[in-house]
Amino acid sequence: MDVAKDDILVMKKEHPCGSREMLVMRSGMDFRLKCQGCGHEIMIPRSKAEKNIKKIIKPQKL
Fold first, then answer.
1. Residue 58 — φ and ψ, nearest 5°?
2. What is the pLDDT along the chain (62 residues), one digit of tens a residue?
3. Three-state SS for 1?
4. pTM for the complete prediction?
């Protein structure tokens, strides 16, 4: 799966705050994600994150 820094991931399950959108702050063997609803940052393994991704929103290029 092609996930890069600054992409927004729409997840299958929502964060406890109610938001499903997560900003990718770092990608590699694990992801550092920032919740777009409350700003909470989490690190999860790549395999677990990829199973939970519903859609990837790429940033617009100018």
1. -80, 145
2. 789 999 999 999 999 999 999 999 999 999 999 999 999 999 999 999 999 999 999 998 77
3. coil
4. 0.88
Q: Report the alpha-carbon distance of residue 43 to residue 54 in Å, rounded.
A: 18
Q: Is 49 exposed, middle or buried (CB count within 10 Å of its CB: 0-12, 13-18, 19+)?
A: buried
3-state secondary structure 3-56: CCCCCEEEECCCCCCCCCEEEEEECCCEEEEEECCCCCEEEEEHHHHHHHEEEE
Give how far Cα 40 sits from Cα of 15, 19, 61, 62, Å.
9, 11, 26, 28
